[in-house]
Amino acid sequence: MQQADSRPSRRAFLGATGTVTAVGLSAGCQSSSARPDRSDTPAPTPPVSPTGRYQAGITLPQPAQRNLLAVVADLVDAKSVRPLLAELGEAIGKFTTGADARLMGLEPGDLTVTIGVGPRLVRKVDPALPGAKDLPRFSREQIAPRARGGDLLIQICADDALVVPVVAAGLLEQAGDRIRERWRQSAIRGANVRVDKGLAAPRNVFGFVDGIVGPHTKAEQERDLWLAGPAPVAHGTLAVLRRMELDLPRFAKLSVAEQEAVFGRRRASGVPLSGGTIASGPDLGAKTPDGRYLVPADSHARRAHATAVGVGLMLRRSYSIDGPAPGLLFISFQNDIRTFTNTLTRMDNSDALLDYTTTTASATFLILPGFDEQHPLGSGLFS
Description:
The chain has 383 residues and is α+β, with helices and mostly antiparallel strands. Helix content is 25%, strand content 20%. Strands 4-1-3-2-10-7-9-8 form an 8-stranded antiparallel sheet. A two-stranded antiparallel ribbon has the order 5-6. β8 (315-321) and β9 (327-334) form a beta hairpin. α2 packs antiparallel against α4 (163-175). The chain is globular, with a radius of gyration of 21 Å.
């Protein structure tokens, strides 16, 4: 796992580039009589518009792209936030349309860049606004000071893994010495599993389908995901980032039945232990003939269930990370921070899954409303 203040070295980047070059060279050594198999050529990835009512990279595209890089930084001078955000919005437009020369010939494909601002900046506008509160501290945290909080989130997602670091380098160059990076984390999503019509969710490194429940319909998103007001933040949302180390070796020693009891779902299918389909909500009242809950009392599916907590739904994006220890980058989007904090507080009490996690980074951000040429990124909030 990358350290809180780590940054990829030029040597590492060139090494990765060299690997790609080597693959390309070896591919060129085929016999001249060999014909390329056109059926293996992937179809062009549809682009995702960066402009509109909402920022891209939250509900669009669906399913979410395979690769993500989250960069968390501080502003050196808060007075620079308005011009900085406007410049970033312009740069995002050029990158996503392929018009920025810093792409170096790469196709942007389904690239999305999502920008959020931290509580310190929101409080300077109005302490009563959504997004003005810092996250409280929870148990099972080992977080260095530089890995807690932050002023700016840059979330970059794409199916093409090469596009992500190239766009990150361009955006950070755009920001220049106006920001100071705190931490960054690259991560990937596992193979998608079909949950329902038009809806898929990936497996995590524990082998379980992750992110099944959420505000997936437009009505649910209006109720639980998007901010309705006040005007400067309307059509934005609140994001929570939590980077976790996972005790994968200890979890792997559990039997499949024990692992399923931790999650409250079948590992192979994602179906709740109470039955139904993968899209079915768990029946928290269902019991065995001898009176035991089918979905165990300390299972993740029960402890984090929105109805049991008494909160709305959160849109969860879980990405697996590699390093000295396997891990998970958890990102949730919701229009009320209590959706997350109340859920984690309840999980803290007795969620069996948390016994295998240690949080090493944590932050929350107001994801700004969408933007276009007439309404620059962040202009409604920082006028």
